[in-house]
Amino acid sequence: MRITLVGSRHFGVTTLNMLRDHGIEIARVVVHDGEDRLAAAARAAGLDVVVQADPKIVAASEIAPGTELIVTAHSHARVSREALAASRLGGIGYHPSLLPRHRGIAAVEWTIKERDPIAGGTIYHLADRMDAGAIAAQDWVFVKKGETARELWERALAPLGLRLLAQVIDHAKTHKTLPAEPQDEEFATKAPSLTDGKH
Q1: Residue 162 near residue 18 (C-beta atoms within 8 A)
Q2: How far apart are CA 166 and CA 196, in angstroms?
């Protein structure tokens, strides 16, 4: 299973390590910032690292030849339709909510803000619309009273993401396909950034 990993920061690094522990061939790591810690970890592991020409979008030329699956891990760039077409199975990402609830950049913050008693994570198919692709795997966790978004992420949602990603990638390795359950638009909610002065 040849994977192109698109990502950044700590979750990108832990995803990289999980993939390597699973014996997955990482054909290339794509980052929006060449100084990012994922770029440093990938170079240290002797992997091919490409910095996106446009930090907002991943182009087809940035996907490694022969990629079977694109995996995003803490990437805020949109993977272009052409890039997805360059990968045999397209692409998947992890979103720290029970999609279609809390689509957007601040899903964990909105989980806390809305006082959701249950949070969760979703592995979803990358698609034209952000966080709207079919669901490949999903699981939930309880939210502790008084927990902050960061605490919830570190305690439960980041480990859940790694477990679900491993599960879906193992499924893809075995079956050469990805599970896909369409999202129910009736339950979609938005989770825009909370730091743009609108609250």
Answers
A1: yes
A2: 34
Q: Which residue has the tokens 């390597």?
A: 20
Query: What span, in angstroms and rounded, lies between the C-alpha atoms of 191 and 70?
Result: 24
Closest to 190 (Cα-Cα) out of 81, 113, 80: 113
Count Cβ atoms within 10 A of the Cβ of residue 130 and give its class: 0-12 exposed, 13-18 middle, 19 or more buried: middle
pLDDT in tens, the chain (199 residues): 999 999 999 999 999 999 999 999 999 999 999 999 999 999 999 999 999 999 999 999 999 999 999 999 999 899 999 999 999 999 999 999 999 999 999 999 999 999 999 999 999 999 988 899 999 999 999 999 999 999 999 999 999 999 999 999 999 999 999 999 999 999 999 999 987 544 3
DSSP codes of every residue in 105-168 = TTHHHHHHHTT-SEEEEEEEE--SSTT-SPEEEEEEEEPPTT--HHHHIIIIIHHHHHHHHHHH
Question: Is 72:62 a contact under the CB 8 Å cutoff?
Answer: no
One-letter identity of residue 185: E
Helix 158-175 / helix 9-21 crossing angle, nearest 10 deg = 40
Global confidence as pTM: 0.94
